[in-house]
Amino acid sequence: MKNNKLSHRVLQSSITSVLAALLCIVIGMAVGFLVLLAINPAHAWGDGFVRILKGGFYDAPYGVGKMLANAAPLVMTGLSVGFAFKTGLFNIGAAGQYTLGAYGALYCAIMLKLPWFVCLLVAAILGGIWGAIPGFFKAYFNINEVITSIMFNWIGLYLVNELVYQNGTGPMYDVRNTRTLNLGKSADYAQSIIPDFGLNKLFQTNSTTIAIFLAAIVAVLIWVVLNKTTFGYELKAVGLNKSAARYAGINEKKNIILSMAIAGALSGFGAGLFYLSNVGQWNPLNSTSLPAMGFNGISVALLASSNPIGTIFSAIFISHISVGGTFLSTKYYPTEIADLISGIIIYLCAFSMLFRGKIQKMLFKNADKTNVNAEPAPAEKANAKKEGK
């Protein structure tokens, strides 16, 4: 009976979370349409809202391939932020960890010409190290991880820029393009590119690889670790109450560091998926701002309520909207409209607890009453037995 009630509550929680996220999306899209109307009402529908709504499908199959390529690193940075959330930490340093992961992947690919899976492993290791440092300060000195991770974002950015650029003489630096070497232009780096297994031909792109499937596999693994293992239980216990976890014999310091290290490794892995899929190159001259992919991970995690499986779908949706924004006619609208819509949706996610509460009352209030009436309380059952005797 208790197991049935527990599973019933879990199902209710899942349904309300999904409906709350959908409500955020609907309101955000509606507000976006109003903005389009305010800017240029004559073209708000066909040249504006429809293109954003269709996303990558507006220019299929190329747009769909582009959407999947951009979604892969978003899944990973969303997992990074969401994993830390689940363990009671706020990893706002995903951008810095992503940056270190990018350097690790590119260095192994360009300089060492290593296979792609080794490059991905190194990217994850460097990201993990960069994430573990704020975790160490949190565990042993109780310094807020938000402060240290923000600081290490900028340290990581300028460190990588210096390592790549090296006054214009760095071996990874392409003087003509003022950025890292283009892996896709030379057969020497073919083994460092993540295989596409025909996806590039299918979507008519040069950057759609199996990265999105690798990201989905990692998301499933993270879900299993958090929900089906003792290690995941310990991480969540430390996040909920460090003192209680310590009393239960859990090493809270070790788990805090491990949590941030895993979060950092996920971000670094995402950077490897992005650059080893030949989606883009690192530009040490213009990289004076942190990679947006790291901060977009916060949006993905919020929209998915930090659920690892939900992160896959929220990342694809954010990528869908962003790619749709690139198809807007610049004659009528700025492409940043898509970012505005995404921002509104994420802002509304801050009120998701309120939405979930309202939806819970609307959908399940009567159902709970029915269950209460249908199932007598234990005391009533005991009295009924005595009367029967």
TrEMBL record:
Location within or outside the cell: Cell membrane
GO function terms (MF aspect): transmembrane transporter activity
One annotated Gene Ontology cellular component of this protein: plasma membrane
Transmembrane segments: 68-85, 106-133, 139-160, 208-226, 256-276, 297-317, 337-355
Record InterPro entries: ABC_transp_permease
Pfam family, one: BPD_transp_2
Membrane-protein topology: Multi-pass membrane protein
Record key words, sorted: Cell membrane, Membrane, Transmembrane, Transmembrane helix
Superkingdom as given in the UniProt entry: Bacteria
Xref: PANTHER family: ABC TRANSPORTER, PERMEASE PROTEIN, GUANOSINE ABC TRANSPORTER PERMEASE PROTEIN NUPP
Protein name: ABC transporter permease
